[in-house]
TrEMBL record:
One of its GO terms (biological process) is oligosaccharide metabolic process. One of its GO terms (molecular function) is alpha-galactosidase activity. PANTHER family: ALPHA-GALACTOSIDASE A (PTHR11452:SF14), ALPHA-GALACTOSIDASE/ALPHA-N-ACETYLGALACTOSAMINIDASE (PTHR11452). Belongs to the glycosyl hydrolase 27 family. InterPro entries: Aldolase_TIM (IPR013785), GH (IPR017853), Glyco_hydro_27 (IPR002241), Glyco_hydro_27/36_CS (IPR000111), Glyco_hydro_b (IPR013780). The keyword Signal applies. Homodimer. This is Alpha-galactosidase.
Length: 410
């Protein structure tokens, strides 16, 4: 522990960056699973709310529901606890420990339970002295904590950036990657590094971020409302600092959780979120009560066509190609395998009025094959027709909705 602290102080004093290439062969496609935060936050009141507090019962019942309702088989395998799982103090050996009342059988037991169901366990920690909610942070305990996760059988770590100095990020996040690697266990590493740098006015070096992290958050915490979804969409459209340029297999930019099935989004808005996160090649981490989720949202989350865009093997994120009417109409294109196939998303962000007609030449979107394209809508599977690349491709888009199509070269 002391040695780790000294490395840290050394790097800090000499103002060096620490570079580590996390070569763990994980996240070849964007990770899929469940993450507690947006829906369950820091509910630790197991006395009055035993079904919904951050604890063993929540994890097990969510995991059971993920299996029963087809989420696991659709590819959602990570079940991840966000903040508020630890006890307020480390144990006598300095190790992290879960809250003993909320996790009576410990974390290893939970990991074993999930593994027996074909699922994976994710946990949350923080680079600083404390987590955002005030639980023990990792600062000064890097190596020990990495080993603790490995001993427990943890499969993913979401690493936050509260309660730390901004100078620590360029060293601390890669250092944690190194210690995770040294455990010998493959642990997916999800970083909030660039997000916190930006919050401190520092321009992230996305190349370094992508080297050290399997996924990296690029924008603020999502919440269950249209304006939150749209602010992420617009950030991806602007792509400041070029985070999409380094996003690909093994290291994906992360637009934060999927909020489908909660309280704040209409059906059109839910289609827009899942469709756009598939276009972004962002992780799909649902934050919803899987035990009671409605069927309409469940079907969207498990839609094969959307998920096959998300999980496409080329691993090239989509880009905003056209931004019209002050952002009210946006056209996004993601290249897919086999080469020559594209997903095209057209979103119409107005919140009043009637469906709008959007006409674009496929060639203006970069689809230039002289044979033309066969275009099929993704959500309902309706065949839209065959289009030459220099002819207009026309679709109607409803306010707040998305038009998502696959274009295959003829
Ligand atoms: C640790 O890094 C080395 C070198 O990149 C790599 O070969 C090895 O597979 C990594 N181990 C794990 C567990 O990720
Ligand atoms: C960004 O990080 C990469 C990879 O570590 C490094 O090669 C590059 O020099 C860094 N760029 C800047 C401006 O520091
Ligand atoms: C990212 O890629 C875009 C499009 O290829 C390019 O215009 C931009 O300069 C790149 N940004 C960085 C930081 O490399
Ligand atoms: C094609 O679309 C453009 C842009 O909406 C429009 O100005 C043009 O009239 C259309 N051409 C045809 C042949 O429909
Ligand atoms: C175009 O796609 C539809 C499915 O939407 C398919 O039935 C049809 O055979 C395809 N046409 C060609 C020429 O590939």
């Amino acid at each position: 522990m002391e040695v780790v602290q000294n490395i840290f102080v050394f790097l800090f004093l000499t103002n060096l960056r620490f570079v580590f290439n996390l070569n763990n062969n994980l996240a070849r496609t964007p990770p899929m699973g469940w993450l507690s935060w947006e829906r369950f936050e820091c509910n630790t009141d197991c006395m009055n709310d035993p079904d919904n507090c951050i604890g063993e019962r929540l994890v097990k019942t969510i995991a059971d529901a993920m299996v029963e309702k087809g989420f696991r088989d659709a590819g959602y395998t990570y079940v991840t606890l966000d903040d508020c799982w630890p006890a307020r103090e480390r144990d006598k050996q300095g190790r992290l420990q879960p809250d003993p009342l909320r996790f009576p059988n410990g974390i290893k037991y939970l990991a074993d339970y999930l593994h027996s169901k074909g699922l994976k366990l994710g946990l949350y920690e923080d680079i600083g002295t404390h987590t955002c909610a005030g639980f023990p942070g990792t600062q000064g305990h890097w190596k020990l904590d990495a080993q603790t996760y490995a001993d427990w059988g943890v499969d993913m770590i979401k690493f936050d950036g509260c309660n730390s100095d901004v100078q620590h990020y360029d060293m601390g996040f890669p250092l944690m990657a190194k210690y995770l690697n040294q455990t010998g266990r493959q642990i997916l590493y999800s970083c909030e590094w660039p997000l916190y740098e930006r919050a401190h006015g520092v321009k992230p070096n996305y190349t370094a971020v992508a080297e050290a992290c399997n996924t990296f958050r690029v924008y603020g915490d999502i919440y269950d409302a249209r304006q939150s979804i749209m602010s992420v969409v617009n950030w991806y459209g602007e792509n400041p600092g070029g985070f999409l340029n380094v996003s690909g297999p093994g290291h994906w930019s992360d637009g934060d959780m999927i909020t489908l099935g909660n309280y704040g989004l209409s059906h059109s808005e839910e289609r827009t979120q899942i469709g756009m996160w598939a276009i972004f090649a962002s992780p799909l981490l649902m934050s919803v009560d899987i035990r009671t989720i409605n069927d309409k949202s469940r079907r969207l989350l498990q839609h094969r066509g959307v998920l096959s865009i998300s999980q496409d093997s080329l691993g090239i994120p989509g880009r905003r190609i056209l931004n019209m009417e002050n952002g009210a109409i946006q056209v996004w294109v993601r290249p897919l395998a086999p080469r020559g196939t594209f997903a095209i998303a057209t979103i119409y962000t107005n919140t009043f009025g009637y469906p709008i007609k959007v006409s674009t030449k496929l060639s203006d979107l970069g689809l230039k094959n002289p044979n033309g394209y066969n275009v099929t809508e993704v959500f309902d599977g309706i065949h839209r027709g065959e289009f030459r690349s220099n002819h207009n491709y026309t679709r109607m888009v409803k306010p707040t909705d998305i038009d998502l199509v696959l274009a295959k070269v003829l």
